[in-house]
Q: What sequence folds into this?
């Protein structure tokens, strides 16, 4: 399952999964460093940072936003 | 003869200057002056209802005067149906404006359902640089809904002011530079005659400081407390500048973030502000007529 980092609240991270559901996870078990919007994959009991997918996804959505907004 | 009068005049001058300095730095005094000058004294015809919808640990506020209806934030990812049901319960079929303070799931999560359920005249949110664009399914769903429903989308811009009938909007942010989504928050003051509501999104103290430095008129009747009452927002100076009669904290019962901060509660109590919280009061409703405000709560 893949997750997007929605935000940080103190020592916790709120992640959104591919179904649009939110889960709250302790930051300590997540990759470090980590930023809002980073994409993660949960595999073999740990969260792995998907750097290239994150960049690609941001670019794709940013381009869509630029087309929509005045 | 001259020597007898010199000292008293000097003392009076110093006292006068001190009094003027005290008055111009006192936001409550400035509020009274604005009222006396009629600057906020727009005559309104009707009543504005402002509903701080209980969506637990998230924000969703509906404003309607019967002619225009506005939604500020749409609640969390699992709250879309509830927000839609609430808006429908007020007989509303069209939203003239939807404002997203910032693109965190607990503010935008319910908006895809809202966009699919109502006619939306305009959507506004802060412009984001590419490196802060969210990558979540929630944000993607929001973009999908805007495109599918052909909704007019505009960026919220600092300094932008406009009216919808008798409802006035003034944006104090977004600030020019921010490195996270909380600090991208659009802070907007909504006015209706002499009544006003300040919505702070999740803007943190660094943004509050910038707003204070801009010396804008912040005093408001009601404050939607920033970031669910967190101490990362709601500095003493900012709260003093707003000096609200009422504060609303949108927060979930027994949330795992420790919201609201007891320090923020203390600062508001020190100002004599009456505090309402969605975890304790449920949905909180304000009705104002341009002069007076009344409050009712669900619990």
A:
């Amino acid at each position: 399952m893949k997750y997007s980092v929605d935000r940080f609240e103190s020592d916790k991270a709120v992640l959104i999964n591919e179904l649009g559901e939110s889960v709250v996870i302790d930051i300590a078990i997540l990759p470090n460093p980590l930023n809002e919007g980073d994409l993660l994959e949960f595999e073999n009991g740990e969260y792995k940072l998907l750097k290239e997918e994150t960049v690609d996804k941001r670019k794709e959505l940013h381009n869509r936003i630029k087309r929509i907004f005045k | 003869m001259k020597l007898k009068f010199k000292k008293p005049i000097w003392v009076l001058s110093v006292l006068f200057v001190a009094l003027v300095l005290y008055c111009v730095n006192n936001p409550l005094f400035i509020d009274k002056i604005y009222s006396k000058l009629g600057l906020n004294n727009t005559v309104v015809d009707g009543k504005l209802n402002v509903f701080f919808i209980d969506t637990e640990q998230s924000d969703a506020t509906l404003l309607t005067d019967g002619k225009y209806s506005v939604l500020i934030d749409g609640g969390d990812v699992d709250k879309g149906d509830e927000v839609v049901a609430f808006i429908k319960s007020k007989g509303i079929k069209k939203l003239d404006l939807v404002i997203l303070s910032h693109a965190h799931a607990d503010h935008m999560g319910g908006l895809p359902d809202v966009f699919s359920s109502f006619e939306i005249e305009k959507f506004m949110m802060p412009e984001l640089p590419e490196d802060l664009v969210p990558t979540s399914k929630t944000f993607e769903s929001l973009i999908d809904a805007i495109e599918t429903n052909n909704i007019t989308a505009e960026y919220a811009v600092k300094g932008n002011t406009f009216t919808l009938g008798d409802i006035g909007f003034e944006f104090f942010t977004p600030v020019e530079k921010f490195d996270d989504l909380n600090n991208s928050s659009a802070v907007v003051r909504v006015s209706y005659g002499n009544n006003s509501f300040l919505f702070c999104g999740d803007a943190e103290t660094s943004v509050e400081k910038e707003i204070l430095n801009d010396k804008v008129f912040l005093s408001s009747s009601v404050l939607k407390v920033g970031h669910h009452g967190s101490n990362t927002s709601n500095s003493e100076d900012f709260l003093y500048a707003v000096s609200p009669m009422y504060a609303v904290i949108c927060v979930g019962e027994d949330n795992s973030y420790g919201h609201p901060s007891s320090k923020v509660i203390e600062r508001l109590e020190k100002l004599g502000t009456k505090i309402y919280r969605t975890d304790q009061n449920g949905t909180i409703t304000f009705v104002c007529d341009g002069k007076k405000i009344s409050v009712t709560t669900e619990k």
Remarks:
- Residues 13 and 43 of chain A are 18 Å apart (CA to CA).
- Chain A has a mean pLDDT of 96.
- The interface with chain B takes residues 4, 6-7, 9-10, 12, 14, 16-22, 24, 36-39, 54, 57-59, 61-62, 64-65, 68-70 of chain A (CB under 8 Å).
- Residues 51-68 of chain A form the longest helix (18 residues).
